């Protein structure tokens, strides 16, 4: 393996220097703290080891008799006190700066899902763009297989749709979550912000160098916690404009008409993809579920002739979000995946769910 | 200071081997095992819970009876008495901290969670939510996700105020009983103890009625959002403590009747009284923070 | 309840503090242990229990390390991995470290203050036996449908709401352990406040008693808060409340505040008794009185008080207002000051002493050295801007294993070697003790030092699999972990077991030349009953004079 530019280096020993002012400040602070602590450490333990060496019984040292000194106690209370104040001062400055999320040029809402990230560009250039970012599925499979053989340098860090932002732009990230707490963290950008369901929190960065920067979810969020990486692509402003453009066109092309009437083979093919991308992580490719996760194969709700039961579960989730809500998927995707589960494995219902049915159930 | 013969007070009483502790622990094993099963939909868990409870309470009964016997036969000297005083104080301190957690939850829900949920930024998530406490007050839009059925809230009038009066007067009657005991007017002490227990029981009755009223008429339930959660957990745990305190007082009354305690030495009485006053103070906190504010 | 065995209490004869009361023989057979009301027996039970839990938690740790030995999933699936991590944390904290210190307290506090027993002997036994149902429930949860809880030892909402039935088992188990801790603490406080021999004033009391007095206070203050937090989790799971659910007006972050209000004092609960043990051992082997006794007492109290106002340093990334972050950063950094006082006092005690390095002293010095490294990383984590990078990475894992393993656990080893002669009546084998020390010290650092690098490079904790770049240090850590585990197996079979079977050189009443304190005024092994009547003490309250 090699170092991953914008991600971890092989046997990396220290924080990354980073590509934002804040990250650099953090790097600097950490080094300063390290040096200061090491110096104190050496000083303190030099004394101890000197004493251990010289004041041993085996070299004939006789014990002295002192055991109290107010003066000394006061000194070694005040000196550390002053040292920590000196440490806290520069930290305060950085802290205040990193909390200042005002005057952002671009605002992106990032939503943590079990186990993927959703990005909504809500203000600034690219407003309105929205997409989901997941771990490259071959990497997930590689992990299950024990990561043997040729393993790519961006193992577990490669995503299908990276977040793209322009360089030298103040980007405000608003975090929230759909199910449990996640954390949006990118070391090179010097940010980490918990994504809390029901609440929004924010942080910001201004990347000074074009490049790909990697991060991972850093709050335990259930079984696939290790598999929801983050990739932020920092591009030049011109490239960014171009990207926004293509993304817009793509989105327009992908717009499904929720009133389109599908045939079974077509929608099954679509459903298989949706299932693999979203559901298989828990319910497994064979639909058998695992542990607390319910099997779909043979499930009463899936087999039910009343389509609305299953649509309701998919839209709103179940068991306190153990089964998350999937309302962010399009009507067509939900219809497709419902149809797929109704006609896969031992489920042979022949039922076909149309997007219009899903649309009708939304908000109910 | 100390002596060899039984019947006189040792310097410090150390009980011999005892089966009560381990029996109690076994009872509690059944309790928690049963409870964990029961709430997950296994009906038989309830039986384990019940069996464990009966077992545990039976053991405690025997244990306490034994301790009372030791006390009455004069084996607990001044030192042991002092130990009991310390332990009761620390126990009450732990209870204060327990209630503290729930009061904190109330405070947090009102002054942090709610305004945050309704803040400008949060309108991204809950655009229609208007933050007003309680979540169903006029002008409010219910819980953020609108999952809470409409309910009405309770004010201090009249049941809670009546209850405040009940508890406060029970504090007075208890103090009268204490003075009576100290003056060796046992009959009067017993009379006022009964009165205290009765006031406690009435309090519970009124609270039970209030709960009934809330559930059936105001539709205020444990599941009524943050308001219902904090309301019922706080008043519920308080009610439970009133119940326990009442049991303590009841047993003290019965002990008084069988001639236990002397005007000088009656820690059992005082311990129960401290507990009762503690329960009283918690109520005052509830009365102001939950019902008034 | 006719089967209840409960003979009358002891009314003790005058005189002989150090002689077994000839009216009462130590009970024998299983009843001696199960029905125990003797602080020494109960102490032994506690110690054995906690060592068992250390093994269970340790095996879980080794499973974690086995999985993390290389990238990719080899040993377990991610779901099971999270269960292992969670249960490892819970078992180590609540099953191994806390009960072990209670075991030390049971054995040593009555001996050190000249009391006949703990203040409430039966409740003492109850505190112990409560741990058994709790441990059964906790470990048994692996066999419940859906497996053990997998939400991390911190049990953050709303992930806990997604857990299976074992979560409830875990919650009840923690309620019971909490009750046990509260009763145990009340017992310890009352014993210390009320049962000191005449002349044993508070400011003459051994440091171990002082640190436990303060620890017990912390326990009583925060265990009920934890009980409150997990009770809310329970009702959110099953009874429709919305404490932590924003949909109903609650807040998941509220859980974290309540939890850490318990959780931070909790970590000092796990270190203060360790400070106490070290404060006993260093003077004994430096042959010089503890330097700055009074300031040690004040420092310990300051740590305890400060520990209540720093909890949100675990929550710097939750998005607190900047004022909150600043407050918690400053308050946390302040704790370095009283801790510094303690470290300096120990070193000043060694200064100009006449030191020897038997195993207890080795572990004590090892403690001071390695714990301080953990303290410094703590300080670095306390700097909020740096914590933004390091929160929830292996740097944190490294930090807390330095303070918990090389701190709490080392202090317990030190305490074991120091007091085992008193407990068992035989000396441990010095060579083996030294082997245990060096082997542990080296393998410990091999295990946990690389984790600092991993954390700085950004490896998140609670990860079943990780990017390739982290592979080498993980491999090193895993090798170290197995070596460290083996060292503890060695400790048990080659040191503890022979001691327990009475093999080895007979221990003198006071095996350490310069040790001070009342525990050395009774024979080795300590007889079943000691100080049945309060001893008369000399002016320093370290010797019995009549
Ligand atoms: C025994 C347990 C123990 C102890 C004693 C400590 C001690 C300290 N801890 Fe630690 N900590 C934990 C157990 C412990 N911790 C655990 C278990 C976690 C993780 C929980 C979880 O998330 O699962 C944690 C996490 C943790 C965090 C959160 C990290 C994160 O999740 O992002 C922080 C942040 O501030 C922190 C800080 C500190 C500090 C400042 C101290 C201080 O008390 C240290 C003081 C000591 C010294 C500073 C060294 C000695 C001093 C000198 C030699 C004098 C000279 C020094 C100066 C003048 C600077 N700890
Ligand atoms: C309180 C004390 C304590 C102790 C003593 C330990 C001891 C150890 N811990 Fe742990 N640890 C925690 C408390 C503790 N830990 C906590 C609170 C967490 C956080 C949990 C969470 O994230 O929720 C944690 C998390 C944690 C992690 C991170 C897991 C993750 O994030 O996914 C790791 C990873 O390496 C780890 C490793 C170890 C190891 C190798 C030991 C070793 O020291 C263990 C040594 C002991 C033994 C190994 C037992 C003896 C051996 C045998 C019984 C026989 C078998 C032996 C051989 C065949 C060699 N611990
Ligand atoms: Cu999402 Cu961890
Ligand atoms: Cu802390």
Automatic annotation (TrEMBL), chain B:
SUPFAM superfamilies: Cytochrome c oxidase subunit III-like (SSF81452)
Cell inner membrane found in the keyword field: no
Keywords: Membrane, Translocase, Transmembrane, Transmembrane helix
Domain of life: Bacteria
Any one Pfam family match given in the protein's UniProt record, by short name: COX3
Cross-referenced InterPro entries: Cyt_c/ubiquinol_Oxase_su3, Cyt_c_oxase_su3_dom, Cyt_c_oxidase-like_su3, Cyt_c_oxidase_su3-like_sf, Cyt_c_oxidase_su3_a-hlx
EC class of the enzyme, as a word: translocase
Sections of the chain in a coiled coil: none
Domain Heme-copper oxidase subunit III family profile as annotated: residue spans: 8-293
Residue spans crossing the bilayer: 20-39, 45-65, 86-109, 157-177, 189-209, 229-252, 273-292
EC number(s) stated in the UniProt entry for this protein: 7.1.1.9
Subcellular locations according to the entry: Cell membrane; Membrane
Bilayer topology annotation: Multi-pass membrane protein
Primary localisation category: membrane
Family: Belongs to the cytochrome c oxidase subunit 3 family.
PANTHER family the UniProt entry points to: CYTOCHROME C OXIDASE SUBUNIT 3, CYTOCHROME C OXIDASE SUBUNIT III
Name assigned to this protein: cytochrome-c oxidase
Organism: Variovorax defluvii
Automatic annotation (TrEMBL), chain C:
Broad class of enzyme this protein falls into: translocase
Coiled coil ranges: none
CDD domains per the UniProt record, alphabetical: Cyt_c_Oxidase_I
KW Protein transport (keyword) present: no
Catalytic reaction equation(s): 4 Fe(II)-[cytochrome c] + O2 + 8 H(+)(in) = 4 Fe(III)-[cytochrome c] + 2 H2O + 4 H(+)(out)
Compartment(s): Cell membrane; Membrane
Name under which the protein is recorded: Cytochrome c oxidase subunit 1
Pathway: Energy metabolism; oxidative phosphorylation
Organism per entry: Variovorax defluvii
């Amino acid at each position: 393996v090699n170092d991953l530019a914008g991600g971890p280096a092989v046997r990396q020993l220290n924080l990354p220097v980073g590509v934002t002012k804040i990250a650099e400040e953090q790097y600097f602070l950490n080094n300063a703290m390290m040096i200061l602590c090491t110096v104190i450490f050496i000083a303190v333990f030099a004394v101890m080891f000197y004493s251990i060496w010289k004041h041993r019984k085996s070299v004939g040292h006789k014990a002295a008799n002192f055991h109290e000194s107010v003066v000394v106690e006061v000194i070694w209370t005040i000196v550390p006190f002053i040292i920590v104040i000196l440490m806290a001062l520069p930290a305060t400055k950085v802290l205040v700066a990193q909390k200042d999320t005002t005057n952002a040029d671009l605002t992106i809402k990032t939503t943590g899902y079990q186990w993927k990230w959703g990005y909504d560009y809500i203000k600034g250039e690219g407003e309105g763009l929205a997409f989901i970012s997941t771990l490259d599925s071959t990497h997930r499979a590689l992990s299950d297989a024990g990561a043997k053989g040729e393993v790519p340098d961006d193992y577990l860090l490669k995503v299908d749709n990276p977040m793209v932002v322009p360089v030298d732009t103040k980007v405000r990230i608003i975090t929230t979550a759909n199910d449990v707490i996640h954390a949006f963290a990118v070391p090179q950008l010097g940010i980490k912000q918990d994504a809390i369901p029901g609440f929004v929190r924010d942080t910001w960065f201004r990347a000074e160098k074009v490049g790909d920067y990697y991060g991972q979810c850093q709050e335990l969020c259930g079984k696939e916690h290790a598999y929801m990486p983050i990739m932020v692509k920092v591009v030049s402003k011109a490239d960014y404009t171009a990207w926004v453009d293509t993304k817009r066109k793509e989105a327009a092309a992908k717009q499904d008409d929720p009133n389109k009437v599908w045939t079974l083979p077509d929608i099954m093919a679509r459903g298989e993809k949706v299932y693999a991308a979203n559901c298989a992580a828990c319910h497994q490719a064979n639909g058998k579920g695992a542990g607390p996760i319910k099997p779909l194969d043979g499930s009463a709700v899936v087999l039910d002739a009343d389509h609305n039961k299953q649509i309701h579960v998919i839209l709103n989730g179940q068991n306190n979000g153990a089964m998350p809500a999937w309302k962010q998927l399009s009507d067509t995707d939900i219809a497709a995946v419902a149809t797929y589960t109704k006609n896969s494995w031992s489920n042979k219902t022949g039922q076909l769910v149309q997007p219009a049915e899903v649309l009708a159930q939304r908000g109910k | 200071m100390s002596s060899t013969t039984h019947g006189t007070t040792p310097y410090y009483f150390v009980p011999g081997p005892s089966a009560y502790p381990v029996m109690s622990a076994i009872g509690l094993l059944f309790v928690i095992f049963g409870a964990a099963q029961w709430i997950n939909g296994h009906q038989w868990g309830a039986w384990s819970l019940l069996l464990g409870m009966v077992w545990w309470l039976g053991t405690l009964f025997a244990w306490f009876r034994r301790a009372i016997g030791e006390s009455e036969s004069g084996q607990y000297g001044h030192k042991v008495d002092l130990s009991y005083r310390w332990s009761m104080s620390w126990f009450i301190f732990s209870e204060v901290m327990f209630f503290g957690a729930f009061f904190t939850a109330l405070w947090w829900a009102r002054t942090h969670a709610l305004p945050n949920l309704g803040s400008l930024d949060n309108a991204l998530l809950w655009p229609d939510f208007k933050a007003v406490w309680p979540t169903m007050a006029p002008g409010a839009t219910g819980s953020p996700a609108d999952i809470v059925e409409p309910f009405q809230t309770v004010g201090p009038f009249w049941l809670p105020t009546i209850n405040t009066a009940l508890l406060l007067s029970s504090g007075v009657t208890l103090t009268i009983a204490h003075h009576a005991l100290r003056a060796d007017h046992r009959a009067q002490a017993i009379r006022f103890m009964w009165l205290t227990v009765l006031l406690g029981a009435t309090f519970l009755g009124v609270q039970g009625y209030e709960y009934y009223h809330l559930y059936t008429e105001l539709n205020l339930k444990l599941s009524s959002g943050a308001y219902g959660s904090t309301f019922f957990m706080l008043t519920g745990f308080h009610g439970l403590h009133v119940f326990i305190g009442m049991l303590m007082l009841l047993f003290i009354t019965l002990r008084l009747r069988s001639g236990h305690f002397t005007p000088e030495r009656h820690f059992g009485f005082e311990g129960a009284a401290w507990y009762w006053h503690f329960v009283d103070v918690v109520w005052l906190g509830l009365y102001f923070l939950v019902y008034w504010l | 309840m006719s089967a209840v065995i409960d003979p009358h209490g002891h009314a003790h004869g005058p005189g002989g503090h150090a002689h077994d009361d000839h009216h009462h023989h130590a009970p024998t057979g299983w009843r001696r242990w199960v029905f125990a009301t003797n602080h020494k027996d109960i102490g032994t039970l506690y110690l054995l229990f906690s060592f068992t839990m250390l093994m269970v938690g340790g095996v879980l740790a080794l499973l974690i390390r086995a999985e993390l030995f290389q990238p990719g999933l080899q040993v377990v699936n991610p779901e099971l991995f999270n269960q292992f991590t969670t249960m490892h944390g819970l078992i180590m904290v609540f099953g191994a470290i806390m009960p072990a210190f209670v075991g030390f307290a049971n054995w040593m506090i009555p001996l050190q203050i000249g009391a006949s027993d703990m203040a409430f002997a039966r409740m003492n036994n109850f505190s112990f036996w409560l741990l058994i149902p709790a441990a059964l429930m906790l470990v048994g949860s692996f066999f419940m449908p859906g497996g053990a809880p997998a939400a991390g030892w911190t049990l953050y909402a709303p992930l806990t709401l997604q857990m299976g039935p074992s979560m409830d088992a875990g919650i009840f188990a923690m309620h019971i352990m909490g009750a046990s801790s509260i009763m145990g603490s009340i017992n310890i406080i009352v014993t210390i406040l009320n049962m000191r021999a005449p002349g044993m004033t508070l400011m003459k009391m051994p440091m171990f008693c002082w640190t436990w007095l303060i620890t017990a206070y912390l326990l009583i203050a925060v265990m009920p808060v934890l009980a409150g937090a997990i009770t809310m989790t329970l009702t959110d799971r099953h009874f429709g409340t919305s404490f932590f659910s924003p949909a109903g007006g609650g807040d998941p972050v509220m859980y974290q505040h309540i939890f850490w209000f318990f959780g931070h004092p909790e970590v000092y609960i796990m270190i203060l008794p360790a400070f106490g043990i070290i404060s006993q051992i260093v003077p004994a082997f430096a042959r010089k009185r503890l330097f700055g006794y009074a300031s040690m007492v004040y420092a310990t109290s300051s740590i305890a008080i400060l520990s209540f106002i720093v909890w949100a340093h675990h929550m710097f990334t939750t998005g607190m207002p900047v004022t909150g972050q600043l407050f918690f950063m400053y308050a946390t950094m302040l704790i370095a000051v009283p801790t510094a006082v303690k470290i300096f006092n120990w070193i000043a005690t060694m200064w100009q002493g006449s030191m020897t390095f038997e195993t207890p002293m080795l572990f004590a010095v090892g403690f001071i050295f390695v714990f301080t490294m953990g303290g410094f990383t703590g300080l670095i984590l306390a700097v909020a801007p740096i914590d933004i990078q390091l929160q929830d990475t292996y740097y944190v894992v490294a930090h807390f294993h330095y303070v918990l393993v090389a701190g709490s656990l080392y202090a317990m080893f030190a305490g074991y070697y120091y007091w085992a002669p008193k407990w068992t009546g035989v000396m441990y084998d010095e060579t083996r003790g030294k082997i245990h020390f060096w082997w542990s010290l080296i393998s410990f650092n091999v295990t946990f030092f690389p984790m600092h690098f991993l954390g700085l490079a950004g490896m998140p904790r609670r990860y079943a699999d990780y990017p390739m770049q982290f592979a080498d240090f993980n491999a090193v850590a895993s090798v170290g972990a197995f070596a460290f585990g083996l060292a503890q197996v060695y400790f048990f079979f080659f040191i503890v077991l022979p001691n327990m079977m009475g093999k080895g050189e007979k221990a003198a009443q006071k095996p350490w030349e310069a040790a001070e304190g009342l525990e050395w005024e009774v024979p080795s092994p300590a007889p079943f009953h000691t100080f049945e009547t309060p001893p008369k003490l000399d002016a320093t309250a370290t010797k019995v004079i009549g």
